Amino acid sequence: MIYLDYQATTPLAPEAREAMLAWLGGPEGTGFANPHSPHRPGRAAAAAIEVAREQVAALLPPGGRVIFTGSATEALNLAILGLKPRRIAVSAIEHAAVLDTARASGAELDVIDVDGEGLVAGDAAIVPETDLVAVMQVNNEIGTIQPVEALAEAAHRVGALFLCDAVQGAGKLETPSGADMIALSAHKLYGPKGIGALWVRDGVDLTPLIRGGGQEQGLRSGTLSPALCAGFGAAAALALKLQSQDAAHVEALWQQAREALPGWLLNGSASQRWHGNLNVRRPGLDVARLMSDVRNVAFSAGSACASGSGRPSHVLRAIGLADPDIKSSVRIGFGRYTRPDEVGDACALIRAAAAAQGV
To answer: Model pTM?
Structure first.
């Protein structure tokens, strides 16, 4: 199987797996200890969490704190609902974790359009009464990189806070220094599933969503997993170390894939995007049949997070594509562990399957 679905999840880095093993111990050890217990094993587990917190914080701006959550979705819910905003502005291509939460918040909602390249204008108009602006750094479906620094400045000019979903960009790009809250997910940067984080700038007050013991700095109750935290931390440290190397590798794969799929039309900007995300379409293509015919390649017809909704991609619709074009689009994602021969073989299989359809 050739895995080309890096936007859905990334492989677990061996270094992250190794960091987790010490905290997955059985009854013969003490690595299983509750990090919120006062005894020595508990304190050791708590210390491991704090090491991981510092490793994740190294990806983020100074002057804030890292709150571990169960996922980036939870982090985004905490940021939006915990702020209790009266008016929110979000881009039209945000992840459902932002769009649906904003709609459910009871706040007045303004949607900021994107252009045909999938980009929000850096000087987008924001209503003065806005409390929160939420724009993602890198779109999960088409990979476009948004002008988040400029948007954060625009938000601050009207007295609003700026929330950035950095799930697809963290560890690959510099995180936005102007943001007031930033959401991350471990499994999108070669860490384990089941853990995310919300970075909160000093002075920003939130109301907790999950109540109980208040274990995570009073903002999230529940026992933290030292193993998941350690894996997240190790993955974050590795991403920071390999950031330039990873980017060069991905750029080479992008060029190879573009040349291997001549005539396929690119969805979104070619330049203002993370090149580990290749979202392309072939007019007349039956994507369901394509995926069935190319079973040995793991790629996507859209966001894995919305794959069961049955709804056409709101991202592709926002950039002006009609339903036939949306339905003929595929997303190919590659990253640190993708080999050039895998990209070559996968593209050859995709081309052959499309040709068999006569497109």
So the answer is: 0.96
